# Entry
Amino acid sequence: MRISVMQVGFAAAVLAGLVLAFIGHPEPSDLPTTTPTSPNAPQTFALKSVSVELPTSEVIFPGPANATAITANCLSCHSAGMVLTQPNFSRAAWTGEVEKMIHTYKAPIAESDVTAIVDYLQATKGSK
Amino acid sequence: MTKTTATTRRFFLGQAGAGGLALVSGSAWSGPAGAETVDLPLPGGPQARAITTAFPQKAAMILQRTRPPLLETPFAVFDRGVFTPNDSFYVRWHWAVIPTDIDVGTFRLSVRGHVDRELSMTLKDIVDGLPRVELAAVNQCSGNSRGFTEPAVAGAQWANGAMGNARWMGVRLRDVLDRAGVKAGARQVRFAGLDEPVVSDAPKFMKSLALDHARDGEVMIAYAMNGEQLPLLNGFPLRLVVPGWYSTYWVKMLDRIEVLDKPDDNFWMASAYLIPDTPGADMKPGQTGVKMVPINKMVPRSFVTNLKDGATLKAGAKALVRGIAFGGSTGVKSVEISIDGGTRWLPTTLGPDEGKYSFRQWQAEIVSAAGALSIKVRCVNSDGLAQPVTQNWNPGAFMHNAIETVRVTAA
# Structure
């Protein structure tokens, strides 16, 4: 059973173009707070089981062959978009991010791959 | 309680689609050819994001990350009313192991730890067995607007759409705790959900509240938002609702509650989501020796929703400016706008009050001579806390709430 709590009013017609000059200060918001038990709530609320599929990312790390290490090590926990939407950072900052992934978030990245990953990040997303 | 404005909800309605996203075709780096993208005005770039309709129970969303999902609400949605539709409500997950099949018959919420009786509650126990409560409240990511932070900070590069407002329905956390019987000496209550890290020894996402906060009668366990069961990606079947606090505490797919007899030292409380214990959570980049504390109450914000940067108004004519505001941890006292870059501030008229934790619409009429125009909007909350002029900075880029500016032209 569904209840239509509030969106009903918003589906109504629009009074666009109405004008209102600055008409003085509105009253402060001092309505009683919250969590009132709604007198209009239905007596039952039935939840239904859910089964969905989450999409996978088609985005790959672009660029030359030196994306091999980042592709091999980083995509098990997050899609490439996480990296590609970042602004540019210094090599030190990128090194810090990779170290955080390894030591804080326990990413199983071989120490021998760290340099190649940071090199890629610096080349792709590096600041001066 | 006083409501002196003669305005109606209808008066404040936005036209659906007004101020809509400027969609352009193609993308430099993502998605299939021809996919829609949007440019977010992030100073450090990159600005292009794909618009996705690929996620279950979700309409068109701004794709920040596919896995685990980070989906931003297109800002035009906020012009259509104070409640954010479930299918447009933003999504943020930490770990990629997210159950995609949830059986309402077998789901259990456990209550353990420093209690008289451990509980294993069915959804029916919760929905039918405890008093039902409702509350309108803003849910905002701690890092909402991080993409505007300068100098930039790593993390989800959100514009302003990692927030939403819903009417939540559920039960009081206090009533659940009382059923278990909290023992003397309890200090905090810890919450966790069904999501798990990909790597087994990584820190499971868990958050805690002080016992008094957990028992304040406002913190609730929600099984519905806006009259419907929660979308899976917003935490179906149960989500903690912590009114006035940042969303990091609003644990999704909540399935375990643990009463602790000592402060929680888990990673997500002790090391992550920390802010400087300074006014506005502000510090200097590189500053050391700053006391850090867990992020907590939200601060006021306000936005213009019916005009975008670059819009043109008719010079000398009346123009309606409209938007939303929220007070953070309390209600909206006032919203003011300036059309001269912040020198002179003028009052606006507030829309209907849906409760102190809700978005509230505001509007005003302006008239401007020909020329460039900086429209600024600021909210003061019921505690007298005003939005700052200058953006804060901290290492997580949390609690962004400086006064917003929309640059338009009157011609």
